[in-house]
Every structure is written in structure tokens, then in C-alpha cells.
Amino acid sequence: MMDKISNYTSMVLHLERQELESSKTGSASPQIYGQLLAIYLLINDLPNAKLLWKRIPKDIKESNSEIQAVWDVGIKISLRQFSSIYSLIDQTQWPSHLNNIMNCIKESTRDRLLTLISKAYTSYEFKDLVLCLGLSETETMEKISKLGWTYEHDNGFVVPTKQDSSNDDAPVPSFDQLMTKLTEYVSFLEN
Length: 191
Fold this sequence. Notes:
Layout: H1 2-23, H2 30-42, H3 46-55, H4 58-63, H5 65-79, H6 82-91, H7 96-120, E1 124-125, H8 126-133, H9 137-146, E2 150-152, E3 157-159, H10 175-190
Antiparallel strand pairs: 1-3, 2-3
Helix pairs in contact: 1-2, 2-3, 2-5, 2-7, 5-6, 6-7
């Protein structure tokens, strides 16, 4: 999963540049906006997703239901309505340029949730975990077994094992990288 996310992360700069360049002649294509919005959600960059949503022209939002559907997933993510995220992604017919990204969002959301649970709880009720993951009981049991979690039949709780968090920590950008990005945003807003 991390390989897929890093591949999409590398697309962000390219899509942001396309958006900036196309703003000189009008607005970016709905495909660029849709992909960029979805990738922001995938990499858990909700502030940039919200800013992008605000700058997408109203006519593009209204004429492209998939962009609205991506944003609906973003709303569910920000509200932490996990089971709604999965069902919304599964129920939407995504165009080819968004399908893989949306499936990655679903899986990475589950993975993040499992990581958070393993860090925060010594035990967690199995039926609540099933709801949070949006999986069947059997699929949930398979998922936690792969992680080395144990299920206590007598009380219906799972006991998570601590996961290695070194893989999910994003590298901290340098001051120069942050200033460059800020300069690009200010330049975009001024033009």
C-alpha cells in the first residue's frame, strides 16, 4: 500500500503545476481537479483538499458528479464516519482516472484506523471494529489475524499488537520546501 501512496504522492506536484499553468488560460480540467482532490484525501492532506475544493470553479463542480462524490468522501473522512466512507466509495461508479485512487483511499483509511487503534487501545470491542472497518466479521478476523491481533472469544474483544509506526510517518518537509510551497500558493492567489 505504501508504494501506491508514494506513487500518487509524487503526482501531486505535477497536478498542482498543471492547475497553476491552466489557471492562466481559464481553469484546469475536471480530471486534474478530481485527481488532485482524491490524492490529497489519500495522503490525508485535508487542509489542501479543502482549499482545492474552494477554488474549483462552481460550474466544474456542478457538471462533474465525480468531483462532488470525491468531496463527499472527504467530508466523511473529516467527520470520521468510517463505515460511510467505505460504502460511499463502493457505491460510486468511479471513472478510470479515479478508480484506483479511491480504492487506495478505502484501504489506507482502514490501515490508518488499525494503526490508531493499536496505538491507543489495549483491547477493542470486535463488533465495533467490524463497523469501523466496513468489513464482514470474517474479513475483519482475517485482517486482524494478519496483524497478529488476538480475539478473545469469552468477552468479544480483540487485543491489538503495537504496530511499527515508522512506515506511516511522513517525512517532515524542510523550511525551504515549506517556503517554496507557500510562495507558489501566494503567487497562484495573486494571479
